[in-house]
Amino acid sequence: MAKQKTAKSKTPPAPAPSHPGIDIGISGADRKKIAEGLSRFLSDSFTLYLKTHNFHWNVTGPMFNSLHVMFEGQYTEQWTALDETAERMRALGYNAPGSYAEFIRLSSIPEEPGLTEAPDWREMVRQLTVGNEAVARTARKVLKLADDGGDDPTVDLMTRRLQTHEKNAWMLRSLLE
């Protein structure tokens, strides 16, 4: 049995396989690596979703209306994509992370305090730019694992997510120029 990393580690323990007898043309070792990458991607994506929704609720200032609407569009799209990512993990035969503790442990994006310390709109936009870039970097890593393992559906999913997060980062970054 593989050793589990400490809570400080960003390398997740292997997601628990739900159906070890799966034969979809991807080796068990590759399915495991891809599922581990998807766990990190899902955690980054969920953390970004929560931060985007938080900022939608708490944005103030002269950019309120445009940012409130922009953030709503982004978090709505992100919510749908979370489900697609978790379902891909299930198709590979692994369980998806589903608790705040797991998301915090696996995510490369720091959570935002929220209620007590809402940043100004510029800092919100900056953090969401950085968050979208972090999700894109994680997607690239998973895309490489999936490509190496011959997992075309995951390659397709990560390609679509890259397009979305790179576009969101560009649009947000443009607000700060």
Overview of the structural elements:
This protein has 177 residues and is an all-alpha fold. The protein is built from 5 helices and no strands. The chain is elongated, with a radius of gyration of 17 Å.
Shape: elongated
Return the structural class. mainly alpha
How many angstroms does the end-to-end distance come to?
51 Å
Mind describing the biggest β-sheet?
none
Order of helices and strands: HHHHH
Strands, count: 0
**Residue share in β-strands:** under 5%
The helicity comes to 55-70%
Helix tally equals: 5
Please state the CA-atom Rg, rounded to the nearest Å. 17 Å
Low-confidence stretches: 1-9
Mean pLDDT: 89
Q: TL;DR?
A:
With 177 residues, the chain is an all-alpha fold. 67% of the residues lie in helices and 0% in strands.
